[in-house]
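S2.1 Query sequence (Amino acid ABC transporter permease)
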Amino acid sequence: MSSLSASRRPHPALRWVHKQLFPNLLQSILTLATLGLLLWSVPKVLDWLIFSATFVGSSKADCVGGGACWLPVVNRIDLFVYGFYPDTETWRVNLAFVLAGAIIPLLYFKRIDRRWVLGYMMLLPFVMWWLLKGGLGLSSVSSTQFAGILVTVFLGVIGMLFALPMGILLALGRRSKKPAIKLLCVLYIELVRSVPVITLLFMASLMVQLFLPEGVTIDILARVLIVLVMFTAAYMAETIRGGLQGMAKGQYEAAKALGFSYWKTMSVIILPQVLRNTIPPLLTQFIGLFKETTLVVVVGVLDVVGIAMSTTSAPEWIGLEHEVYLFLAMFFFVICFALSRYARHLEKQLEKSR
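Output structure tokens follow.
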């Protein structure tokens, strides 16, 4: 009898469909309407994007078929990716991309010692700077030749890796018992958070040079990077400070009873727990930083958005703005979606550990 009743039970997949998609009449209507909209729109979108699109040609006149014309992107893909980087040295850019992209899979592998991963992330900004700028055996490349996706990835990755430790120090400083340190951190955080990032970029681009001695200059890319790091670190500091305030008082008392110093207490007991609990909002801020790199175009740094604007304004590609900006949207979606999925993965791991 039990085997008969078990055989009549619906398959787990059918139970999931019933529970998630058709639990009641209203939900069933919404599900069917959504499925109908997808069945009507997806074939049309795919036909425009891929099947009737034009990928081969050298001018706008070669765009036939009624679909998207990807020729502006296809013909200028090297400019989109490498900017004005020397053609013979693009292997350095490719290697920098590989090293930056390796962060996510390294974070997924649990068998790798976290200390090795942390060391890799600490060295990565300096290795990327050496690869892209040159020196120590590599030919020097001016930052004025940096453009396109190269600039976006460079600013995003290095900005992320420098903003987190700075945000931790600011959060600790704001909770410090020393009035001078606390006041400085509070003033810094509140001042930076009260000013739009685009204002800070203009100040770094136009005003900083006025206060430097004659003949002394700071690379515009370095100035932009410093602004993005400072801006993101101020917001991260508040997120981490919230995590510190949420820690049980007994954690501090236990560390004090064991004779731990302040820095040992923070590094061994407090911060590992705080960072684990604040990882989702911190990754959200990383995603925001990656998208905010597009603002550097207003101070003359040609990131991928700057290249797209120059492409759409070229006489031979006028009228194909939709395809160019759709390419940009897909590029940012892939990067930000990967980061958001990793944030979700960490949330699940945190729920299991709890």
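Residues 155 and 225 are 6 Å apart (CA to CA). Residues 2-51 form one domain.
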